[in-house]
Amino acid sequence: MKRTQIQLEEEIYDSLRRRAFQEKKSVAGVIREIIKKEIATPGQPRPSSIQDFAFIAVDRSRQGKLKPVSEHHDEALEEALRK
């Protein structure tokens, strides 16, 4: 284990202290836990949440001459990028 020093905003530090007290852990232990959850170990994908896919939406596409786009998606993407 390596030792490090960080500076935190007052509100963040207060939140960490409250959480540490509630979970009966040290502030350092809570920070380590948060960092472990946030940073995936090499070779393991980071757990995703629904917010990671907020760019996905349901709608009707304008398929144009490349209909059906499901079969011609590469050509449709190329055409869209040229615009």
Query: What are the secondary-structure elements, in order, as H or E?
Result: HHH
Q: In percent, how helical is the residue content?
A: 40-55%
Unreliable parts: none
Q: Report the mean per-residue pLDDT as an integer.
A: 79
How many β strands by DSSP? 0
N-to-C CA distance: 52 Å
Number of helices: 3
Domains, number: 1
Write structural notes for this entry.
The structure is a single chain. With 83 residues, this protein is mostly helical. The chain has one domain. The protein is 43% helix and 0% strand. It has helices at 10-23, 27-38, 73-82. The longest helix is centred in the first third of the chain and has 14 residues, at 10-23. The termini are far apart.
